[in-house]
């Protein structure tokens, strides 16, 4: 896991780049009768790459909108490098790539980037923004002749052009095919390797596993898990221990410490444990002839299901009743 803590120092943009990149406390937002964000506290350090995960309707987009100052919270506050979101956006310290956002119909990609660059204090050159987004070949392309995936990469270039210290991406690869997605993340590496802060909302768990230092799971407007990928996996479902145990007795395996679940077929034992070291030691003490032992972590996708499963069940029940 990469954890890069380089910050950019005090900026001329009225934002303090030495403190916390994002500081959120007690954030709450209702959409009519729906509590979309329900008391979120979150601190993100400069240089962190954080994935925001959660099922549909968890409150991710509402949270992202409040971080960007597009939506006002009902209560609580957001600070970006110590400043109000609106000020951080105006100063170019934070930029976003959202799922939607019209591109100018009668402009080429290069012209659009030039226009956005002219609004900022110390922008990248158009050529550099195109290079970093990996779309130099699209400079003369009218925006009306871009595929869905290309439009997303143009939105990425538009977000980069202010040379922001903090980038927010709301499901950035949703419209991209596998190859484009890979190229996109490759170009993101350049950005994160230079010590910038990134928060991205995604439904692709493998993207969170591969690119984030930290994952935050939201459910029903609340943060239900927050940590390094490995920590969140452990929190959700522990580890799986497999072994061949001649003469095994199920009740004896169930009685071992930290055992959450047991499956036995002939002499093959599968144990889900919240503390695999403790379970393994006890298993070997109780069954000294155990062999072919294997301990594996669960995937982030299984952790995701475990952490968000009950809300989906709640929703299914609400629909049925
Ligand atoms: N403008 C709105 N008016 C009414 N309800 C809204 C509005 N925007 C969001 N909601 C509701 O607020 C809750 C949170 O929605 P939000 O879009 O923030 O979730 P999300 O995690 O981004 O979902 P998804 O993964 O589907 O994009 C949902 O129940 C949604 O229906």
Automatic annotation (TrEMBL):
Residues 22-245 form the ABC transporter domain. One of its GO terms (molecular function) is ATP binding. It is a peripheral membrane protein. InterPro entries: AAA+_ATPase, ABC_transporter-like_ATP-bd, ABC_transporter_ATP-binding, P-loop_NTPase. One of its GO terms (cellular component) is plasma membrane. It is found in: Cell membrane. It comes from Halosaccharopolyspora lacisalsi. One of its GO terms (biological process) is response to antibiotic. Residues 1-21 are annotated as: Disordered. Its main location: membrane. This is ABC-2 type transport system ATP-binding protein. The keyword Isomerase does not apply. It holds the Pfam family ABC_tran.
